[in-house]
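stage 2 :: seqdesign
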């Protein structure tokens, strides 16, 4: 399938594939009998749109009913169960799917570390699988095939007392040491160049987040953090794809990624700040415990220091969150389509306050006493 997007009203073989995948997942039950005889007649009708929205909601994607590249990858990966195919690490094309996530979960449960449970067969998953194979006395080739599948049936879970992926992620944070000095943080200002992002009320998303990224970078440098930007703070600098930006963060071995955006909506009443971390509301095992903790801290600090409406935190599986090997948080600092939010974001003092809030949240995250099971207490509104 190409990078094209498919939506209500489209027809053709690609739509037939979409319908097949949705039917396989039990999200589309009424398939016309004549569809298989002529795939060019396959229609992206309202039932397909509703099924796509349901799938996107389940998988932590934007539920817009459009099958773009990201939704297609999730649909394609959802058709695989562990044992359906041989799994291996490929440097040019990494396998992805529900079967990979199931393998990662099994490795975690058996006491082997495959890295984040993200459904992507990367080098960490290969290392964890090879270590398992060595312990089983089978060829440590990093291939998850019939021999390894049979071995799974003879093994019992060895890690008990909590969710092992959360324990390991918290331990990685501990190993990096307390405090911010010496940490590597990637700041990801969204959009840039010809892609201006949301544009409304005489502001563009690319310009707002470029300025905010510069302010955060300055504060981080002052406390000994090495900060990398995924694009220059000049708003005219084009931005790479989310996959390329995630690869950059992985290559510099960042401790944390902060992705900056504004929001927009057809309704002029939509407003507020929201933060997002990697995870799915339907699958607790995929959640990033550090990402969730930092998202809560950032949200609390921004809401406490500004009059932006609290849009809360949420788990999502967007590419920038999924493909980074370290905790990543996306901050949507307001709606440019809301006159009040736009007026606030146009004020350099407000952007400076948000940058300060991000720094405070980072300092709290890296304190030795940080509670990784966040229980955010909302500050009371000032009494007038």
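stage 2 :: out
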């Amino acid at each position: 399938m190409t990078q094209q997007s498919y939506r209500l009203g489209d027809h053709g073989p690609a739509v037939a594939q979409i319908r097949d995948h949705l039917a396989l997942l039990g999200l589309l039950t009424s398939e016309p009998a004549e569809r298989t005889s002529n795939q060019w007649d396959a229609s992206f009708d309202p039932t397909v749109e509703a099924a796509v929205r349901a799938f996107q909601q389940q998988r932590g994607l934007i539920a817009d009913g459009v099958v773009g590249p990201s939704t297609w990858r999730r649909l394609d990966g959802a058709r695989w169960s562990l044992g359906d195919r041989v799994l291996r690490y490929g440097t040019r094309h990494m396998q992805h799917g529900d079967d990979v996530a199931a393998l990662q979960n099994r490795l975690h449960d058996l006491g082997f570390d495959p890295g984040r449970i993200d459904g992507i067969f990367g080098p960490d998953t290969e290392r964890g699988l090879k270590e398992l194979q060595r312990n089983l006395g089978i060829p440590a080739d990093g291939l998850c095939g019939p021999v390894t599948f049979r071995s799974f049936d003879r093994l019992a879970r060895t890690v008990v007392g909590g969710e092992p992926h959360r324990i390991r992620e918290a331990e990685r944070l501990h190993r990096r040491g307390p405090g911010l000095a010496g940490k590597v943080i990637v700041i990801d200002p969204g959009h840039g160049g010809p892609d201006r992002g949301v544009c409304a009320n005489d502001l563009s998303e690319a310009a707002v987040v470029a300025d905010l990224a510069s302010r955060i970078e300055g504060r981080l440098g002052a406390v000994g953090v090495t900060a990398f930007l995924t694009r220059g703070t000049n708003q005219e600098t084009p931005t790479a794809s989310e996959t390329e930006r995630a690869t950059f963060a992985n290559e510099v071995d960042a401790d944390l990624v902060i992705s900056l955006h504004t929001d927009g909506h057809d309704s002029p009443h939509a407003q507020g700040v929201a933060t997002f971390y990697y995870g799915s509301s339907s699958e607790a095992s995929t959640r990033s415990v550090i990402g969730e903790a930092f998202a809560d801290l950032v949200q609390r600090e921004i809401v406490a220091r500004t009059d932006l409406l609290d849009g809360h935190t949420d788990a999502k599986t967007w590419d920038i969150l999924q493909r980074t090997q370290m905790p990543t948080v996306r901050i949507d600092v307001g709606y440019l389509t809301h006159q009040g939010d736009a007026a606030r974001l146009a004020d350099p003092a407000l952007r400076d306050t948000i940058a300060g809030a991000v720094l405070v949240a980072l300092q709290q995250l890296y304190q030795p006493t940080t509670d990784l099971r966040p229980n955010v207490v909302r500050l009371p509104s000032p009494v007038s």
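stage 3 :: structure notes
- The two ends are 58 Å apart (CA to CA).
- Residues 372-384 have pLDDT under 50 and may be disordered.
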